[in-house]
């Protein structure tokens, strides 16, 4: 039975990127935080909340040397399980060369406090290493991500995620139009609950004021509903969100 929900594939996709605004703590340290309300929480374009809204928060403590630690939390809803929240731990190093090229290497542990596996179910917590690359050529920014897990969601074994994208800042109100394409490979597709898949998205981010911003986008995969255990969590969808960043 758990195979039918394993395609929910958890994690890092909506974890807020480091914000421009930061709280200076002195001695080279700074703190950044984001609170988000969203109509759906998707990770790699698969719903983590069974197509329902989510409230999320993230914090990052960084040092001018490039090292940082952080956390991300969100409500989740996986059918036929008692998983109700996700709390992640992140640590890494980020460095920018010549004010244009940024390398970000991190380790992420995706935890689900309160979850207890029932007969026929698998452990859903997992670990990933994530490499992010960014090249800024104003007003265009090119981004790429590679993530590897030795034992992915639902103990589904070795996995790889590759993603490429572009952000274009418009001269009107600093509006940003973004596009992403990615592919997820999983060693044990039967245990994961879905085949390897292609993901794609287009979204727009609009700064408002006082640290607030709004976003709306379209997110999709090439997984059919029958390949997703009969669930709608892999379907194409529109998502809207409001964020506050400090």
TrEMBL record:
Q: Identify the stretch annotated as signal peptide in this record.
A: 1-21
- Domain of life, per UniProt, equals Bacteria
Task: Name the UniProt key words of this record, in alphabetical order.
Answer: Signal
Matching InterPro entries: CHP02001
- Signal: present as a keyword of the record? yes
List the NCBIfam families. gcw_chp
This chain's protein is named: TorF family putative porin
């Amino acid at each position: 039975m758990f195979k039918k929900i394993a395609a929910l594939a958890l994690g890092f996709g909506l974890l807020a990127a480091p914000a421009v605004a930061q709280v200076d703590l002195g001695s080279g340290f700074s703190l950044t935080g984001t609170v988000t309300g969203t109509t759906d929480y998707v990770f790699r374009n698969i719903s983590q909340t069974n197509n329902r809204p989510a409230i999320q928060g993230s914090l990052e403590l960084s040092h001018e040397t490039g090292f940082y630690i952080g956390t991300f939390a969100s409500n989740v809803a996986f059918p036929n399980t008692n998983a109700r929240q996700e709390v992640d731990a992140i640590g890494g190093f980020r460095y920018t060369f010549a004010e244009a090229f940024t390398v970000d290497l991190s380790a992420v542990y995706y935890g689900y406090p309160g979850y207890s596996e029932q007969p026929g179910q698998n452990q859903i917590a997992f670990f990933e290493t994530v490499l992010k690359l960014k090249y800024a050529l104003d007003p265009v920014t090119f981004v790429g991500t590679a993530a590897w897990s030795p034992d992915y969601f639902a103990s589904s074994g070795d996995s790889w995620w590759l993603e490429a994208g572009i952000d274009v800042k418009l001269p009107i109100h600093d509006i940003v139009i973004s596009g992403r394409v990615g592919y997820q490979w999983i060693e044990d597709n039967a245990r994961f609950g879905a085949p390897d898949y292609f993901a794609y998205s287009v979204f727009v981010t609009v700064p408002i004021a006082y640290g607030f911003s709004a976003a709306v986008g379209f997110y999709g995969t090439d997984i059919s509903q029958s390949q997703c255990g009969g669930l709608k969590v892999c379907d194409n969808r529109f998502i809207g969100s409001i964020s506050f960043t400090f």
